[in-house]
Amino acid sequence: MKFYNVLAPTLLVLLMAGCGNNSEEKKDSFSLEINNPKKTYTPEDALNVSLINKKNIEIDSVVYFLNKDRIDISGNTISLSGKKLGEKTLSAKIYSDGEEFEASKNITILSSVKPKLYTYKVLETYPHDIKAYTQGLEFENDTLYESTGQYKESSLRKTDYKTGEVLQKVALADTYFAEGLTILNNKIYQLTWRENTGFIYNLKTMEQTGTFVYGNSREGWGLCHDAEKNIYKSDGTDRIWTLNSNTLAEKDYIEIFTNTSKISSVNELEWVDGKIYANVYQQGSIAIIDPSNGAVEGVIDLTDLKDKVTQHPGLDVLNGIAYNGEPNILYITGKNWDKLFKIEIVLK
């Protein structure tokens, strides 16, 4: 028994070391090479790839993935057409006699489209509560709903946008910092910033009926939804998440890229004619995004709109986008702005 007690730990260490070496050997058995390498790629590109079998292992099959999505390969060519933009991992899973090996390569896919540049024309100006730290804005039946932030000041509001009158207001508990909102299936969905909690309200009564939590998304920033009842959520990064409208669980995400770079700090969201309009935090601009792949197709320059409101110490950035079904027309406000603007979007 004494001999066994001394020997067992030694055997265990040897076994663990053996497993580790085997794992490293498996990892180094294959490598993935791109024969036409570029610093970045676009969906118009096709990758010519080679799988290097370093130890002449007999291969049963190989499956290729872009992140977690399985992709097709024709010969040695992988088309990037229709793929989402962003920083991706191209990987090959190799199967041999019951064993699995993997080789991978990191790539960045940018948009193939240069964004169009837009400016604006103010059509109407309406009063807006100068104390409203606007985080979300959305129309429903010509009534404007607004989410306002700051700890101890956060609220959900139903307003008459033409007069600025607050028709109904729900105050959040002091521990919550409210963020974006969207309205779907007679329900209002409202985010909070760092509290990992979203609230669900009855649209008619504005009574809170439920809550939901976030999954992998870091924080709560903006919300919108499409005609197919998908909900989209920004989290302050370059990602916009797609949520299941029944469970609010995260299904997937897109990464927001132009033809040259990543767009971070994506904030307030609005769905407009099949595109996501996203306010870029502290930039005074709105990105027009293809929701299928994350490509920025246009940028609306609103940087001087803030100059048209009353200047005061608490004045903050543009952060409210609402669409009421009028072509090329948006309703814009910001944090502690005393005006709501009806603007026409004009190509520069």
Overall description:
- The structure is a single chain.
- The model is unreliable at 1-20 (pLDDT under 50).
- The protein has one helix at residues 2-27; strands at 30-34, 46-53, 61-66, 69-71, 77-79, 86-96, 99-109, 116-127, 134-140, 143-148, 155-160, 165-171, 178-184, 187-192, 197-202, 208-213, 223-225, 231-234, 239-243, 250-255, 266-272, 275-280, 285-289, 296-301, 318-322, 329-334, 339-347.
- It folds into two domains: 2-109, Immunoglobulins (Immunoglobulin-like, Sandwich); 116-347, TolB, C-terminal domain (Neuraminidase).
- The longest helix has 26 residues, at 2-27.
- The chain has one helix and 27 strands.
- It has 348 residues and is mostly beta strands.
- Strand 19 and strand 20 (250-255) form a beta hairpin.
- It is 7% helix and 49% strand.
- The chain is elongated and about 75 Å long.
- The strands form six sheets. It has an eight-stranded mixed β-sheet, with no helix packed on it. The chain has a four-stranded antiparallel β-sheet with strand order 4-3-6-7, with no helix packed on it. It has a four-stranded antiparallel β-sheet with strand order 9-10-11-12, with no helix packed on it.
